[in-house]
Automatic annotation (TrEMBL):
Interacts with microtubules. It comes from the Eukaryota. This is Regulator of microtubule dynamics protein 1. Keywords: Cytoplasm, Cytoskeleton, Repeat, TPR repeat. Signal peptide: none annotated. One of its GO terms (molecular function) is microtubule binding.
Length: 229
């Protein structure tokens, strides 16, 4: 495994070439290193997003989690391992039911924050993940909040303002790096009753090129939100 091979895998991922990325990883001579393991977890996770078959989707998420877990076991201080372990744990715990998802909230947040401390100055993706964590935690209703407080040992708190700060930070590091960041910048402004500030972000989100499932979701949701402004 060389730095050039890792760079190529990252370029494939950024270009939404998930199957090609998986094929390349499976041909590498060193598939057990932490750097390869978390990239494998990332690739399988995004392949799960492309699937429309429920059982296949779930199987891929669980497979991705196993790879992320293995990466973290190899190096608990690795940025990519913490970042993708947190992201995939969030998705995997959702498959395991509401109670398990709530129990894992603190763990997800811990790994995101650890990743931020390791490489937050140069990676926009981890700020987007932390932003989504804050946004989704902010939008829960009072019944779910009550359940969180009763189930989670140390329930995390968040606000739409904190979510907006994270999405803005991500965009400042690398503008236009991810379609969903544009969407969530718009949604965060809307949640804060800032329609004028939301509109340009939603317009950009509604105009993204569709290369993968996240792009499609971004365009559709942004288009619907714009109709309501």
């Amino acid at each position: 495994m060389s730095a050039e091979e890792l760079k190529l895998l990252d370029e494939m991922f950024e270009n939404c070439e998930y199957q090609d990325s998986l094929d390349m990883i499976q041909k590498l001579s060193d598939q057990e290193s932490c750097e390869v393991k978390w990239r494998l977890a990332r690739t399988v996770f995004f392949l799960s997003k492309q699937s429309s078959v429920g059982d296949e989707k779930e199987a891929l998420v669980r497979q991705a989690f196993e790879h992320a877990e293995a990466a973290l076991e190899k190096d608990g201080d690795n940025f990519g391992a913490n970042k993708w372990y947190g992201a995939i744990l969030s998705e995997k715990s959702s498959l395991d039911g509401v109670t398990e998802r709530i129990k894992q909230l603190e763990n997800v947040q811990k790994h995101f924050q650890r990743a931020v401390s390791l490489n937050g100055d140069s990676d926009p993706g981890i700020w987007h993940m932390l932003g989504q964590f804050n946004y989704k935690l902010s939008e829960v209703n009072w019944i779910t909040r009550k359940l969180i407080n009763s189930v989670a040992p140390n329930p995390p708190t968040a606000s739409y303002a904190e979510a907006l700060e994270c999405f803005a930070k991500a965009e400042s590091i690398k503008p236009n790096f991810y379609a969903l960041n544009l969407l969530y910048l718009g949604k965060s402004h809307l949640a804060l009753k800032q329609s004028a500030e939301a509109k340009p972000w939603l317009e950009r989100a509604a105009a993204v090129e569709v290369r993968c499932e996240d792009d499609r979701i971004c365009r559709e949701e942004a288009t619907e939100l714009l109709k309501k402004l």
